[in-house]
Amino acid sequence: QKLDPDYFQTVDQHNHVRLLRALHICTVAGKPYSSFLGQNRKQRDFDAISIEICMPRAQLYDNINRRVDSMMEKGLLAEAKVLHPHKHLNALQTVGYRALFRYFEGEKSIDEAVADIKTNTRRFAKRQLTWLKNHPCVHKLPYDTAVNTDLVIQLGLEI
Questions:
Q1: Which residue has the higher pLDDT, 83 or 19?
Q2: Residue 41 lies in a domain
Q3: Amino acid 140: pLDDT
Q4: What beta strand segments (E) does 7-159 contain?
């Protein structure tokens, strides 16, 4: 509150992560966090384009399910076991790890944990699709076209 009264008035004061981040930036930079907000972005020598590869929802969800199964086969469980003692770290608060941590703590069976990973990953994908739908500047590319890398590059050059 003392270091940046302007930001303190606007931030959700129950969001400890944002408060700690702002406090850290104030301390390191020596100036209020709010002074960094709303600054003009640096001009770039290029234009960025956004492309959404559109895939039928059922196919997307099937790909997600198969990807989770593949990750489990390739050692996600063992990786999560090593990371479990550090589960409090923000970087480990992800869909897959969170579900497996619950398995290690006896709250879920392994099948339930894997099902949770699949469900939560599908929900995350749905949120991404919603975000993309609400941004008309994103160029849509049908999946069957997207598999042709040369065509994707050509379309990118034309856009």
A1: 83
A2: no
A3: 84
A4: 51-54, 139-142
